[in-house]
């Protein structure tokens, strides 16, 4: 699917993210390199 505007893409991404369970979200974002990067930014 192609999107004509950034807003349309953002809406679709929001819809898809809303469908994820907490377990799936944790598994996708729990990679050590992601956690290390966030820790380096002092955001964790």
TrEMBL record:
Source organism superkingdom: Bacteria
> Mind telling me what this protein is named?
Uncharacterized protein
Q: Tell me the organism.
A: uncultured Leptolyngbya sp
